[in-house]
Amino acid sequence: xxxxxxxxxxxxxxxxxxxxxxxxxxxxxxxxxxxxxxxxxxxxxxxxxxxxxxxxxxxxxxxxxxxxxxxxxxxxxxxxxxxxxxxxxxxxxxxxxxxxxxxxxxxxxxxxxxxxxxxxxxxxxxxxxxxxxxxxxxxxxxxxxxxxxxxxxxxxxxxxxxxxxxxxxxxxxxxxxxxxxxxxxxxxxxxxxxxxxxxxxxxxxxxxxxxxxxxxxxxxxxxxxxxxxxxxxxxxxxxxxx
Length: 242
Ligand SMILES: *[C@@H]1O[C@H](CO)[C@@H](O)[C@H](O)[C@H]1NC(C)=O
Ligand SMILES: *[C@@H]1O[C@H](CO)[C@@H](O)[C@H](O)[C@H]1NC(C)=O
Ligand SMILES: *[C@@H]1O[C@H](CO)[C@@H](O)[C@H](O)[C@H]1NC(C)=O
Ligand SMILES: *[C@@H]1O[C@H](CO)[C@@H](O)[C@H](O)[C@H]1NC(C)=O
Ligand SMILES: *[C@@H]1O[C@H](CO)[C@@H](O)[C@H](O)[C@H]1NC(C)=O
Hints:
binds 2-acetamido-2-deoxy-beta-D-glucopyranose; single chain; 4-stranded antiparallel β-sheet
């Protein structure tokens, strides 16, 4: 009798844990992190430097409590931020990028570092932005097209804006999004004193997180990696109950 009771108890408790995880939207090994009094507690899709990769898509650093920072992409710039709402709207206030853009006129690395992440099967990103086309330096045919406007150039690339933000990228050009003030700009980027980034995690990625997996963008296809570990522990627990 006892083993059966144990088994039932084990299954039930596991279900409770699973149910709790779903309800709460938290992984048990991804504890919320208190950033500072103003920002409050941070959880998925945000993690801190010591959390493991499945705990978040963006890393925050609150070691300087008065000016917490967030990294929007790997190897990217650490932006000073003011707040993060319950609905994952991140308010960024940082004037250093303005200085960086000014000090080096048209630098590929600066643009790469400061550009916003684009939407993916993992997360949809919404921000007022200036869309820049980064083209090889020999794409001078674009200069004659009235819909494109040359903004700046260096030895390797020329950067263009367009009148309509929805134009597809010309051949051999890639797209770069820079934050812009709420009003549409026609001139060259003036770094906004403040901007807001709305991050909407896809249903697939939320489900993956709850299962303890890592959300991945596999060439435009969503992939939930590392989920095997969770399965194993489930089987292990059921095995113990026997
Ligand atoms: C990250 O958050 C965890 C959980 O709150 C905490 O134990 C850890 O010290 C934090 N790491 C850093 C670098 O703040
Ligand atoms: C930038 O603006 C364009 C046009 O409004 C939009 O399609 C794109 O998703 C935006 N990019 C980001 C990162 O918000
Ligand atoms: C374009 O790039 C090539 C190769 O990097 C270089 O040789 C050439 O001088 C550049 N042209 C201009 C106009 O900067
Ligand atoms: C242009 O590209 C070459 C080769 O990739 C690189 O060595 C050089 O630093 C680049 N120049 C600029 C201005 O980015
Ligand atoms: C794109 O790049 C390829 C290879 O470098 C070149 O042959 C082609 O002419 C380029 N297309 C345009 C529109 O510049």
